[in-house]
Specification:
- The chain is α+β, with helices and mostly antiparallel strands and 153 residues long.
- It is built from four helices and five strands.
- It has helices at 23-33, 37-40, 42-46, 57-75; strands at residues 13-20, 82-93, 102-114, 121-131, 137-148.
- It has a five-stranded antiparallel sheet.
- Strand 4 (121-131) and strand 5 form a beta hairpin.
- The chain is elongated.
Length: 153
């Protein structure tokens, strides 16, 4: 199958994960990118609404992206014609993510648009959900991705 924009059907769903959230990685990410006390220190985190050390939402996004891309690369499918994301819509951190959580996700193709400015590309919108080990949604978003169209003959 050719994995051009024209061949991808709404409802296509891909799954990725599972992966475990590592305590040391939570702290290392926070030290570098999101140095808030509830991401850095268990004692400080215990005094917040989280009640314990929590991963940064930005780290959760990064972990999701890594797992999603690795799964797509391993599937040998449509990823070869993806040209990068244009942005995110509706990003929501639904629940905190904690060290030891085991996360998995899915992405569903929910919209296809023709590009007005670049006829050789189309736009795909993917609704992505990330769940923890208790089947609770911890993150949701819609990614807007530029995708190669079938070359004109």
């Amino acid at each position: 199958m050719d994995y051009y924009w024209e061949n991808l059907e709404l409802g296509l769903t891909e799954h990725f994960g599972p992966f475990e959230v590592d305590r040391d990685e939570v702290i290392a990410f926070a030290e570098r990118y999101d140095p808030q006390p509830f991401h850095l220190d268990e004692e400080a985190a215990a005094k917040t609404h989280f009640g314990r050390l929590a991963a940064s939402g930005w780290q959760t996004c990064a972990m999701m992206m890594g797992a999603m891309v690795r799964a797509r690369q391993n599937s040998g499918g449509w990823q070869a014609n993806a040209l990068g994301a244009m942005g995110l819509d509706e990003l929501r951190w639904r629940r905190p993510v904690f060290p030891g959580d085991v996360l998995r996700g899915s992405s569903e193709l929910v919209e296809k648009l023709e590009s007005r400015s670049r006829p050789e590309t189309g736009i795909l919108k993917w609704r992505t959900r990330l769940l923890n080990q208790d089947d609770q949604e911890v993150l949701s978003l819609v990614s807007v991705v530029l995708h190669r169209r079938r070359p004109k003959a």
